Amino acid sequence: MRQFATVLSNHPIAKGAMEMKVSVDTNEIAPGTFFHVKTSELLRRPLSVANVEGNVVTFLYKVIGAGTTDLAARRAGDKLDVLGPLGNGFPLQQAGKRVVLVGGGIGVPPLYYTRRVLAARGIETVAILGFDTKASIFYEDAFRELGETIITTVDGTYGEKGFVTGPLAQVDADVLFSCGPEPMLKAVAASHIEERYISIENRMGCGIGACFACVYQAPDGYVKVCSDGPVFRAEEVTL
Questions:
Q1: Domain check: are 78 and 110 in the same one?
Q2: Containing domain of residue 133, as a range?
Q3: What is the pLDDT confidence band of residue 17, given thresholds at 50, 70 and 90?
Q4: CB contact set of 19 (below 8 Å; sequence gap of 6+)
Q5: What pLDDT band is residue 184 in, cutting at 50, 70 and 90?
């Protein structure tokens, strides 16, 4: 599970967002899972899988603190101490005839790999991606190559002005897969789509369910985001 990945590339792709590609030795990686990456700080950083091509895994991350600043300084050829893939991803076996993918900001990355896998299985998808502003947008062209894609920005500088809930209300789909900030997840979890799955972003300690650092409230107690999730049915957690 633990290995030293080789950094292949690492560069900015939008305001505050970085794309890192690494070479890893792993078997099939399920969409929605993550790697726990060691940085200069004590705790590792969970990075969702944005894409997989052979043994090349792509991470997209936002530079917001000392740990991710350290990651942003890594260069091609550097070694990266990683654990993974970890967690439970999106239940693709539940995907119906049409799936709507709803992402917000740095919650967008795992939905790209998920959409690629769904497309390969012949499942129709529509993606709704929300960003703060035009300068924050990434992977738009990549998403559009796979099907209908709707972009929203909070300030209206690109796409539809507002939040992802606007266009989501007009979408007809069997299943919803979503990842993003908690307020967005709370809103989409109350949508009209019958089956709703959300991926929760949370700080983690061990990443394997041993330390209880990433517990999240559920109707009957608590769940561990790292090992029980990060993907849950909307009704399995209390947002």
A1: no
A2: 92-195
A3: very high
A4: 9, 10, 11, 12, 13, 50, 58, 59, 60, 138
A5: very high
φ/ψ of residue 234, rounded to 5: -55, -35
Q: Give the β-pairing of 56-62 and 17-23.
A: antiparallel
Phi, psi (rounded to 5 degrees) for 9? -160, 160
CA distance to 36, 69, 105, 113, 151, per residue, from 10 (Å): 17, 12, 19, 18, 25
CATH, residue 149: 3.40.50.80
Number of domains comprising the chain: 2
Same domain, 37 and 132: no
For the record, the structure tokens of 100 come out as 């709507």
Place of tokens 């929300």: 130
**Has residue 171 been placed in a domain?**
yes
Give the pLDDT confidence of 32-43 residue by residue, as tens digits.
Answer: 999 999 998 878
